[in-house]
UniProtKB/TrEMBL annotation:
Gene3D superfamilies associated with the record: Winged helix-like DNA-binding domain superfamily/Winged helix DNA-binding domain
Keywords: Cell cycle, Cell division, Chromosome partition, Cytoplasm
GO biological process, one term: cell division
Pfam families reported for this sequence: SMC_ScpB
Protein name: SMC-Scp complex subunit ScpB
InterPro entries: ScpB_csome_segregation, WH-like_DNA-bd_sf, WH_DNA-bd_sf
NCBIfam families in alphabetical order: SMC-Scp complex subunit ScpB
Regions of compositional bias (Acidic residues) in chain numbering: 212-224
Region: Disordered, residue numbers: 198-224
Amino acid sequence: MSELHAEDEQAFEEAELALEPEAQGIAEAQRLRRIEALLFASPEPLSETVIADRVPGGPVAPLLQELQGHYQDRGIHLRQVSGRWQFVTAEDCAQVLVTHQETTRKLSRPALETLAIIAYHQPCSRADIEEVRGVAVSKGSLDQLMQLGWVKMRGRRDAPGRPLLYGTTPAFLEHFDLDTVGDLPGLQDLKAQGLLEGTLPPGFDVPRPSGEEGDELEEDGEAA
């Protein structure tokens, strides 16, 4: 009888081991569904930290990548922008959602130049921008960029006069379809696209932004 009892216990343990991978697979599938529902219902992009807090049980990055692959050929895509995840309409399906024609406001050349300088040199002050452009920066250019939500104040530089510093926002990354500022095109990329003249000033270079603040900032509580 004891031998039969031992055999029963061994068979039970083997059955448990056989079912364990299946149970894990079911649990992961359930987490995937919950992440999908969470992203679908969220009115704004979510970071992996927030998703992991709402759907505990293990790493979420592999599940997000799996979900992204699942939606690759669908009418909506899962996209990561500025380190956050959100569902977006597939570009080739966007026209079916258009119900009216919006009037686009064209940025002035000074505003575009100011935006480019901030993007590549951030965080930078008005004096930094003027040094690169070689002309004074109008308040209107900065105001327009901040109204669009592409630029915001990033504190003050720890220097005489404590000048305000400016940097780009997640809305800037989203509009230009960038994950981080490190994805901005470099000098060779710009040349290849014909966006720079063939003859450039000696020593001219396009910096590679790291997305990290090189200045010591002091938050001053001013709103962007």
